Amino acid sequence: MRAVETGLPQVSQNELQAMAYTDPLTGLGNRYRMRDKVRLLAAERAEDPAPFAIGIVNLDGFKPINDLFGADAGDEILCQVAHRLKACVPEGAYVTRHDGDEFAFVLPLVFERSGAERLGQTIRDVLSAPYDLGDRNVRLSASFGFAIYPFAGDRFEDLVKSAETALYRSKRRGRGQITVYSREIAEEMKRATQLEQALRNAIINDQVEVYFQPIVNLQNDTVLGFEALARWNDPDLGFVSPAVFVPLAEERGFIDALSEALLRKAAEAALSWPRDLFLSFNLSSAQLMDPATANNVLSIVNLVGLDPKRLELEITETAVMGCADTAQRIIAELRQAGVHIALDDFGTGQSSLGRLRDFTFDKVKVDRAFVSRIATDRTSEEIVKAIISMCDGLGLEVVAEGIETMREATKLKQLGCGMGQGYFYGKPADAAATVVCARRFYQDTGADLAMRAAL
Predict the structure, then answer these.
(1) Which residues pair with residue 342 across a beta bridge?
(2) Strands, E assignment, 298-421
(3) β pairing state of 141-149 and 178-180
(4) Last residue of a domain, one of 157, 181, 205
(5) What is the pLDDT of residues 75-110, one digit of tens each?
(6) Cα–Cα distance measured from residue 87 to residue 85, given in angstroms and rounded to the nearest whole number
(7) Which among 14, 36, 87, 449 is most buried, taking Cβ atoms within 10 Å?
């Protein structure tokens, strides 16, 4: 009996196999193709196991750009990335699309750590150039994880797991980082995973607390508001610094859950303060790349019943640089609702003046790095003086962070700085102690406040 003619082109077995091993978007090989390449290379070197490397590269901040400009723009960026990778990997290397916005390479002639790091630096520079989307250009950074055969594993699955572990460490360290797997890194990531699970449980069980540090009027030392600060004291781990667990939550993708839980607690606590005291709260880099952030923040404060005009959100220069267009929209939506925006850690970034030009802020916070030397270093004094003068001209309020001594406070007053915070005026305290502080210090003189802060 003759085969039924369908009118459709016949596909050969070889063509079907090629399709199964090819990423349809970029034309690169896929994970299965990479697996076969690694296994073949390992078999060739089985008797004399000469090293080779595999690498995985992840595009930093790709998802918000994909969300903002649409899937077609995201696909175009991925195709441009694929083209650049094929053009810049060394001869004999093989590039694949690993998963989503991750690409991978098999590197037969990369034998050790330094070679992998040098190649990572080259590829990072190539990928950092602008991507042309027709009516706009977009910039991205990339993070890398490398694994060397056979030290990081002699099977494909083990090598990939090691490269992914190295990539996770790169992402934890920030954007554009390069990590080559080692046993020490594996132990570090194991501890991080254990810490992650403990933190997730703490969030679910409402065990991450909010402490508050007063922000005062430097001219009369009265309390104007409080900054909310996260504190976590785990039953097994003990006190865990926010400098450790906040970046971990951001890197592992649950910073929203942590931040929203803390904002709810902070807003509820602020309801017990005198009504003209404001609440200052920090937004993370990830939140400034999420178009839903403004709606999430406003939903929480409205549900709690806190007037948005009493809320001040602190953002860093580094955070707004991640995806400037999205950050601008978030800031505009929040300010339209009455929320105030402060630029935190001013002076420590690379283009703070540009941020003041491109974004609309209500307040600037001068970093502790300048404040701590203001009474002893002429250069620091002049920098702070210039910041205050500039902000006066721009109509921005100024807060000096990290004031710890009477000399620092006196010098800032002489320079005309409007507000300040630091251990001299009060250490972070829990919600109950803050209510007492707010009600008592609200009417106190500066001398009394400073005396109590020193106790």
Answers:
(1) 314, 363
(2) 311-316, 340-346, 363-366, 397-400, 419-420
(3) parallel
(4) 181
(5) 999 999 999 999 999 989 999 999 889 999 999 999
(6) 5
(7) 449
